[in-house]
């Protein structure tokens, strides 16, 4: 069973040497409190909490799952106490305004927290995670009164929150939402309808749960422009903030899921539940999209988390378990067979996991800084700045969410593969990681939806390719000073440079084709997403390698081994993972007829 | 929940039009009874049994699982009755000699049977499947007396069998087997030891279970050359074949597994159990390897099965479920949104599943004919013929097992992906397919072991590349007459021709490198396996397309739609799946240092 240990050495390397987080915080309007000492204290404290409190509940939480009895949901043993400790530690309000009881720190610290918590116990992390979505909505769209009522207990963690979007007939296609909101004489609304797949919809961790609900007014236009947002709390809230009666919203059932079994996924029945409109009438869907970028980066973290955890499980097994001899002869001469790690194919699997986890970490830490700027600009009331960073982040988001979760899932499966048949046995905990990871490419928009968002919306519609041009310019700028370097850095820099040019050309070719044949977008988007992911991860691996090389050449470096292994992992990425992009490149340029020509009725013959 | 329907149209197409099974059986020494009418009757009867009896137990079997109580294992509801029907139908002895009560038909019919049964219910199919391994061992290595005692009840299905190889300290590395066999004065042995991961080790389907056990004599040499085979039956068998007392072999526990939950995977404790040696002393491991090829092709069937079943689940959902509009505008004009199947990215996933299932079917049906010849040559006592076919099959085996199970797993996951979030919910049955499929790349030798077997043993050691040269010559011979054809056939033939030449060159390059650097074999083998799989599947897709084209050009063809869709699926394969080989090609030629250079202690830093 993997024993989670926060990878502090790598986290610090990335924060301080790959990126300049100290400088970034210093330049951020709400970053003043995020001094290096404070950041260290947060990381250390969070690591301890995750290793000692959350990680031990991961396997037992999966085994026990959640139970429901007449609408009352019980979380697995230990979750309630862990949540209480989490709330008492002030962790929920880390990046929320001090006026509501938070610590007002930059939101990137929330992502670091989510990374550690999610790796230790993804199911647990979803409870406070959904509250964040709720809090962000109330904070950005709520009235002053609504904020004063709902924010303090949400920020303290005393209450939890959810996002109620999906209905039985629609997930991605929220234009089809049917839940009704009938206006009442007192200005409130009565909501009636069924929501499904509601994470944390009901549980025993808090005494109140605040639902953000998408619903339609009786006179609302059809489709996306007729959806409004409502606050519906489990317990009605009196004007003074105290709890009133039970509202008519109830968990009808828990879903039986492949994984994240300790996370309560509820069918929520609204039966004339009293709610309050939040934000503008009929503009609910727009408001939801505001948080899409940050929510999706939060899900990208799951890819990193499960690659990391599966690696942490597989590595000690590969060091201890023995089988056969390495092809190049005896390695562990005192034993009749060699440790798995001596076998090149096992090393290939471990290094894939490591390259994915650390590559994803760099991609996410980079995006987190953009998110910091975006959040800061809201507080600053600087709309132009907000839109600039939102647009930039918008390019990263589908790549991070789509690509990192796909590779996280692959890495989780490789961890099972290192264990051989034992990987399939529940007690070892490796198959749980693969089951838990499996949801990440499905929720918050499937990989296919991310791919359409990237190629159709972000690249073609919104920026006409400029987002790719801008990022590839960054790739070139990073690589250029190292093109003539000897050794691995020079080799990787040249490869990255060439790839940047290739990506530019490819994007232009796709744009030209899409102008003639609209099917190109949907037929090519998956391969374009994966291709873009490999390119972007390559860029951030080069960035890590350059930083490691710098560390290596500094006199008296005490971390020589760390830096060397870092460069070696980068080499592995460039030699063994990046070439996968070639298959995607060829495929995305294939004629659309190979996908589109088959008659819908000819997919099968009895 | 997928409703299994045997894909008879495609099975018949492959048997009669892609391959000439009628001609094949006519030329086989034990093929006389396998007339076209007989084959049709077997396929039809088996399809009905699978659709009506086995398929309905698939989801319930997973939900219920097996239970153990003081060594007594209970299978899920309905399994016992289904097994009784299976045995009564004479299905178990289909391809076993008539002198022991079987039908004496070619073994390829067993693979067709396994394909249908396994797709309908893989867990169930493992019970009779393990018996086959046991029967084959007794038949090929048992004394006349042993055969007379054990074969009739095994062939009738009255008894079941197992293979007891794995122990806690060793799976792949069977040289480390520790179970002891002490000779007794009466010529029998007493076996003591623990075996794990024993499929069908204990259950309630039959009144006796015959275990084939790997164990060591007290004076046995260390390692692989000191392992012998023993028959240990659950109930001791009297000389007249009647059942005697309970033997000292007992299931100690059931493994808790990710999937195939209705298959009883047992820890088997041998506590001085009485056994009889089978075959030659100390040559047990060699004997085991005799069946490796056929057993591994049996596991390759699992890749086909789960690709097919997941496709059968995903297709109706994609036709019915609606979401958004297709990018090229309204398709289902009477609805506010279009069926999923109109979205190119969904078509990509469905066509991948279909291309994998049908491509794998062709690969397996081809190998099954070689297996027929191999089995026939045993009966004929023609050792040279046996070795010829064993060697030829030996090249196909790791590719089929390794590649098809990897793609089957991918296809099972794509089926979940088509369902979106609903794919994660147990009731739909799609996640079960992914969990069941997950074992296929782990057991019967992991993908890494298949890869080493292919590149290290079959290509380099045993044939010095000749197996690749021979297969690529077949590719060229198939493609050559069509190189100048217009339309898709010509295009695919030219692609296959080029790929054959590329594969030849690549193999030579790898051989030259491996001669200098032994790490090449282990570092490149995974990519070589996958590359080879894509090449081979391409060849068999071209073969299908040519056969479909022939059908299409025949006057008055009533299956025009079928043939057209078949060629379109082939095109999809060539345009969208085959290009993945490029990534594998580049990766396998990467320097081994990118995998080998990292110090074992530098894989992680605290």
Account of the protein in words:
The structure is a homodimer of 606-residue chains. Helix content of chain A is 57%, strand content 11%. With 606 residues, chain A is an alpha+beta fold. The two termini of chain A are 46 Å apart. In chain A, the strands form three sheets. In chain A, strands 3, 4, 5, 6, 7, 10 and 11 form a seven-stranded mixed sheet that branches. Chain A has helices at 8-18, 21-26, 36-54, 58-64, 79-88, 108-120, 122-141, 144-156, 284-290, 292-320, 344-380, 383-418, 430-438, 447-462, 466-479, 487-516, 519-553, 560-577, 580-588, 593-596; strands at residues 67-69, 72-74, 160-164, 180-183, 189-199, 209-215, 228-233, 235-237, 243-246, 249-254, 265-278. Chain A is built from 20 helices and eleven strands. The model of chain A has no long low-confidence stretch (mean pLDDT 96). The longest helix of chain A has 37 residues, at 344-380. Chain A is globular. In chain A, a hairpin with a 5-residue loop joins strand 8 and strand 9. The interface between A and B is large, with 113 and 113 residues.
Q: Note poorly predicted spans of chain A.
A: none
For the largest beta-sheet of chain A, the strand count, sense and barrel status come to:
7 strands, mixed
Give the C-alpha Rg of chain A: 25 Å
Mean pLDDT of chain A: 96
Proportion of helical residues of chain A: 55-70%
Of all protein chain pairs, which has the greatest interface, and how many residues does each chain bring to it? A-B, 113 and 113 residues
Distance from first to last alpha carbon of chain A: 46 Å
Q: What is the SS-derived class of chain A?
A: alpha+beta
> Helical stretch count of chain A?
20
* Quaternary structure state of the chains depicted: homodimer
The number of E-state strands of chain A comes to 11
- The 3D shape of chain A can be described as globular
Fraction in beta strands of chain A: 5-15%
